[in-house]
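From: lab user (bench 3)
To: helpdesk
Subject: output format question, protein + iron/sulfur cluster

Hello, I'm new to running complex predictions and I'm not sure whether the block I got back is the full result or only part of it. Here's what I submitted:
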Amino acid sequence: MKVKINETKCIGCGVCVDIAEKVFVLKDGISEPIESADLNSSEVLEAVKMAIEVCPVQAISFVK
Ligand code: SF4
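Helpdesk reply: Thanks, we reran it on our side. This is the complete output you should expect:
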């Protein structure tokens, strides 16, 4: 499982970075998933789920 950002939707608000700094980084004003993020960590996974919920433009999703 991976985390995906819809770059067309993302407005670069930074909320996902604040919530899950191990998973997201802002690059050129758009959030980008960090490849090495450990999604097997329940703590990290919960943070991603929260970021998905609060992203104002629903730009974050899980992909297989
Ligand atoms: S919370 Fe959503 S809109 Fe804001 S930076 Fe993250 S992906 Fe982009």
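A quick orientation on your result: The chain has a mean pLDDT of 96. Let us know if anything else is unclear.
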